[in-house]
Specification:
This protein has 315 residues and is α/β, with parallel strands linked by helices. It contains 14 helices and seven strands. A seven-stranded mixed beta sheet has the order 3-2-1-4-5-7-6, sandwiched between helices. Strand 2, helix 3 and strand 3 form a beta-alpha-beta unit. The N and C termini lie far apart (51 Å). It binds S-adenosylmethionine. The site of S-adenosylmethionine has 21 residues, from helix 2 and strand 2.
Length: 315
Amino acid sequence: MTQEFDHTPVMVAEVVSMLEPVPAGVLVDATVGGGGHAAALLAAFAEHELVGVDADEAAVAESTERLSRFGDRARVVKARFDELAVVVRALAPGRPVAGVLFDLGVSSPQLDRPERGFSYRFDGPLDMRMDRSRGATAADLVNTLGVAELTRLFADNGEGRFARPLAEGIVASRPIGTTSRLVQVIERSLPGVARKRAGHPAKRVFQALRIEVNEELDVLAAGLESALGMLAPGGRCVVLSYHSGEDRLVKQRFMRAASGGCVCPADLPCVCGAVGTVRVLTRGARLPSAAETARNPRAASARLRAAERLLMRAS
Ligand SMILES: C[S@@+](CC[C@H](N)C(=O)[O-])C[C@H]1O[C@@H](n2cnc3c(N)ncnc32)[C@H](O)[C@@H]1O
């Protein structure tokens, strides 16, 4: 294993038990990272093979090495998870897809390596791309978006009434090329009352920029669509989210798949002909245990949701 890649996978036992009842076939780890969940799944389910996907080539290198002990039961490829359908068709043609796991967000090595530019705790270039071979960096965004666009970005990520002063402060301080310079600008732009909130004052701004740089919500919607579409009957989709916007999107997408998009009033029988394709397995999101959060504080915001593909009735 490469020395510096150190990511503790979250809610591993819950993920494994959620995938326990699935039929034989391919498990897809759409965010394979350092391969922690993938290794646990391959060890737990000897009859399954696994396709691992990650947009970050450092993660692909790490998980390829870590999963090599499983031989040809594990294949890892660099791709974004909105490309899942193509990847799975190419790597496991004709095989039933038994499960798809999404463990969203960033890995500890991405956060902890200053040169990746994800963290407000270290000085580094303002990059934040998971896939460093494509797309705009966080520096591109803070140096080109207008006040209105930056305000919307920060407001959507929970900055509320502080979104506009932040956006104005950033626009007035351009160019901004490093994480520490951005932290300085944020601290200067926030009114005193905002600086007294819990957590680091730059936390939400960095998160908002990261989500935008990696188009995380749009890509997640497309990834979930592919995952739910490719599951074999009885197959399951399990998602770990770390941000309320992501969790809401997952919950809504699962509910829509369960109702088939039914538009009938909830208290009346369905007459619109919609047919659900999944059963939601988690009424409310499952949370990590207090013991896990104490051991691994990065697990604290995790929310697990899962859905199972139904056996389709012959028409
Ligand atoms: C929380 S980590 C996953 C850790 C992994 N479960 C493990 O056990 O090591 C999230 C991973 O998802 C990857 N990722 C995030 N968004 C992605 C996307 N849209 N497509 C592919 N990979 C993505 C990140 O690069 C990161 O490696």
